[in-house]
Structure prediction request, 448 residues.
Amino acid sequence: MLKGRIIFMSKVVKFGGSSLADAKQFKKVADIIKADEERCYVIPSAPGKRFGDDTKVTDMLYHCYDEVVGGADFAKSFAPVRERFNGIISELGIDLSLEDEFVKIGRNFASSAGRDYAASRGEYLNGIILAKYLGYTFVDAAKGIFFDNKGNFDGDITNACLGAILDRTPRAVIPGFYGAMPDGSIKTFSRGGSDFTGSVVAKAVKASLYENWTDVSGFLVADPRIVANPEVISVITYSELRELSYMGAGVLHEDAIFPVRSANIPINIKNTNSPKDAGTLIVPTGTEPPSKYLITGIAGKKDFSVISIEKDRMNSHKGFMRRLLQVLENHGIFPEHMPTGIDTVSVVVNSHELDHQREKLEERLVEVVKPDHFEIIDGLALIAIVGRGMRSAKGTATRVFAALSHADINIRMIDQGSSELNIIVGINEGDFEKAIGVLYDMFMLSEQ
Ligand code: ASP
Prediction:
């Protein structure tokens, strides 16, 4: 008989701020964790909003820090945060006091521990409460998540250290959003960064799944502010998600997929308030089931401009493109798309990149690129129609064009990524909502 260790597959579960906003939500979270014994590693955010115009604890902490730096009394300024955490503890009925922690935080504020330190205390304190409530070990993220001297996340060291710590800790709560600099000071990720922490932990423990629990039942095929009751995307690949997120569809922090993607770990977006919903599963390309629909999602953004350049025999002017790109780079402008003709090139850029430098840019372009004609046209919106299903299917572009032309929408630019995963169209901003609506109808309603 083969002897050996039984390999226990663990899941990493991250809960967002709204999932841990008060004691009622904590109870839902504990029920979810206890319902599956593989849910061994838990990443909490700080308590979020309990109602529409409530304030997230992270924002309270930033505010408190600014007040204290401005000379306010710590105890007074910190009181609302203290109350919030004490309220959760007393409603949960657990035997825990954070008073010593509050004193320590006050001392560290006084010794200028910094704004990142202040903001990180929301996750830190919430983590202590959740660990106590679950009976899990609390592991401070500052002990296993590291940044280098330049302040960049250090994936290799983190993976090794955190992996070693969690290897000997079978069930743990690790607060999201922050880690430590080489000198031991605290640094946070950008806002929403607990999603990233969850992904880092999932990689370190070689999890079978990273569950990201939030307050929606997954990604939607289109923006619900534009399309009424859009369908939930049941399975999406990492690559498709990148395309959609880039175009503005966001539930996850934009960096969160990278650690798990490199380790082939799927992510499941789940709803704490409706845990039976399947949510959205994000999987590596090649492991996805065939999709029910030709497309996976539609997303778009406004506020693009086109720098349109005409030059006779453009292609025979050596170095033309290089000079054009150099001028743009020198002005901190990074092209989103560059459709070209024989004697024309259109550079699609974010309009805000042109702010305060239009005239200078125009002068430089005339001087260096010497176009026969050129103009900057504002008011462009881009829409991405994304789907792995379109790779093997013919006629997707035809349907995009038919839907838009039938709705009397003029297409000003077309781009298809070389991966054949998306088709991007540029249209007038005024047609944006209408275009998303007709594309949704064309691909989702007609295929039911
Ligand atoms: N609490 C932090 C924020 O509000 C981090 C997070 O929730 O992921 O951004």
The first strand starts at residue 11 and ends at 15. The pocket of aspartic acid is lined by residues 17, 45-46, 56, 58, 122, 176-177, 191-194 (CB under 6 Å). Confidence is low (pLDDT under 50) at residues 1-5.
